[in-house]
Amino acid sequence: MGLVERIRGLFGGDDEGEANYRCIRCGEGYERNHQSCPACGSEFLAAAEGDEDSGEASGPGELP
Predict the structure, then answer these.
(1) Closest of 25, 56, 44 to residue 33, by C-alpha
(2) Which superkingdom is the protein from (predicted)?
(3) Pick the residue with more confidence: 48 or 61?
């Protein structure tokens, strides 16, 4: 978790459940796309299709 996300969490601006992009290696979520993951340095980020914890389908072949 980056510094900005920590500050947002302290002041009630925590949008962790609404990540638009997610790192394929570590799973960290972000509101906007990055060239590389700030948490682990991976260059593989993808658009988030659904949140695993919410019960939404997150890939082909999975049922909601």
Answers:
(1) 44
(2) Archaea
(3) 48
- Alpha carbon distance 45, 29 (integer Å): 9
Residues 59, 28, 37, 58, Cα dihedral to 10°: 10
Cα–Cα distance, 52 to 50 (Å, whole number): 6
Neighbours of 42 (CB within 10 A): 14
Q: What is the mean pLDDT of the chain?
A: 74
Contacts of 17 (CB under 8 A, 6+ apart): 51, 54
What pTM was estimated for this model as a whole?
0.48
- Between 6 and 59, whose confidence is greater? 6
3-state secondary structure of 52: helix
Q: Supply 6's token pair.
A: 């920590």
